[in-house]
């Protein structure tokens, strides 16, 4: 739906002035003459008025904010835009929260040109840039992959002298990593570093995912080293990504060397750390290293998940050692309910094993088992072994 940027004649500021001190009641149609030309008679509109009173708690100084947020949160964008046009041509200045939520709603419906017009209107009306305004706009355009609008917004922010804050810089990195090229993403990261801001966890994950998708594992390792492996606020994320860059290429000596450096630096291995190493050991059929990793997990009190069990099962069945599988799994608590605790970055690099995929299918489609307490690792292993034995059977048709 296209919205007119020109204000109605009867609501022009020269014909009628709205005093900030005078409260305006939203339930009086005389206060909003534009609604009398296009009445809203649907039941969803009446529900929205009730939800606005319950869910929205804003100061009574600006009656427009409550209505815009109420309409936007309930998906009534045409009505929200009508109130927005009236607010722009009144004496009120919209708040950052109102602009942010309205832009999010417009981004969800794909109306990026309308969101860009809102940004220009607020920039002209506000005496100084609203805090978080350009962050909301960049996030809005980035969610839809509108890199051209995002670049224009970023250049406009710089031209107005608005300093790049951490939230905006990390949002730009996230958008480029999802929709842009690696060069654009690395340029945005350099700009963030020059602004003396730290990249946050979401930015690290987005850039790591982009490198993994492109298969640039050497550049991935260089990136996490540049961020700083000693950062405690990110936990084991940087170390795990570094180990992942070696494990996916099966550089076992480098993997072991960096793992020892990690433990000597005071970082405690978690489930992601062990599963990254065990996936490499499983694909390389290094059974002794698999057993040592299981002992290390037991000593460190790390609870294994479905990926851990899958590494052991796939490695033994790949080498036709199914009879020895019970010995390999004796260190695991097979009666615990099955769950997946591994970081999605690991699956992006390694993929999922055959046991993992089969187990997820069983857990998803067998609702009767879910009602009776869920699947245990023992149940999943038994069903998977039966499936493998049936696959190896040869039926002769006469």
Automatic annotation (TrEMBL):
Organism of origin: Punica granatum
Entry-linked NCBIfam families: PPR
Protein name, entry field: Uncharacterized protein
InterPro entries for the chain: PPR_rpt, TPR-like_helical_dom_sf
Pfam families: PPR
Lineage: Eukaryota, Viridiplantae, Streptophyta, Embryophyta, Tracheophyta
PANTHER family in the record: OS08G0520200 PROTEIN
Signal peptide as annotated in the record: none
């Amino acid at each position: 739906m296209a919205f007119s940027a020109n204000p109605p004649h009867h609501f022009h500021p020269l014909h009628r002035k709205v005093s900030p001190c005078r409260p305006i009641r939203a339930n009086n149609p005389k206060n909003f003459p534009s609604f009398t030309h296009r009445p809203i008679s649907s039941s969803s509109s009446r529900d929205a008025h009730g939800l606005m009173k319950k869910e929205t708690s804003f100061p009574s100084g600006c009656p427009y904010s409550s209505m815009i947020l109420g309409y936007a949160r309930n998906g009534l964008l045409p009505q929200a835009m009508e109130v927005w046009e009236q607010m722009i041509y009144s004496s009120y200045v919209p708040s950052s929260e109102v602009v942010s939520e309205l832009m999010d709603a417009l981004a969800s419906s794909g109306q990026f040109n309308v969101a860009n017009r809102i940004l220009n209107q607020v920039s002209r009306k506000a005496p100084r840039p609203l805090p978080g305004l350009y962050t909301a706009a960049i996030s809005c355009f980035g969610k839809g992959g509108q890199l051209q609008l995002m670049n224009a917004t970023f250049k406009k922010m710089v031209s107005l002298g608005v300093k790049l804050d951490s939230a905006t810089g990390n949002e730009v990195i996230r958008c480029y990593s999802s929709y842009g090229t690696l060069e654009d993403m690395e340029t945005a990261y350099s700009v963030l570093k020059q602004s003396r801001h730290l990249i946050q966890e979401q930015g690290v994950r987005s850039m790591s995912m982009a490198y993994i998708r492109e298969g640039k594992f050497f550049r991935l390792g260089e990136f996490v080293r540049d961020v700083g492996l000693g950062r405690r606020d990110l936990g084991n994320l940087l170390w795990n990504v570094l180990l992942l860059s070696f494990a996916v290429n099966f550089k076992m000596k480098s993997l072991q060397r960096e793992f020892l450096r990690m433990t000597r630096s005071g970082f405690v291995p978690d489930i992601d750390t062990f599963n990254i190493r065990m996936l490499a050991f499983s694909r390389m059929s290094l059974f002794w290293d698999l057993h040592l990793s299981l002992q290390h997990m037991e000593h460190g009190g790390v609870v294994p998940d479905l990926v851990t069990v899958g590494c052991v099962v796939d490695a033994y069945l790949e080498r036709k050692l199914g009879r020895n599988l019970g010995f390999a799994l004796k260190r695991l608590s097979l009666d615990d309910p099955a769950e997946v605790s591994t970081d999605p970055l690991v699956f992006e690099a390694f993929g999922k094993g055959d046991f993992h995929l089969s187990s997820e299918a069983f857990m998803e489609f067998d609702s009767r088992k879910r009602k009776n307490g869920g699947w245990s690792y023992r149940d999943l292993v038994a069903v998977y072994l039966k499936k493998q034995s049936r696959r190896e059977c040869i039926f002769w048709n006469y």
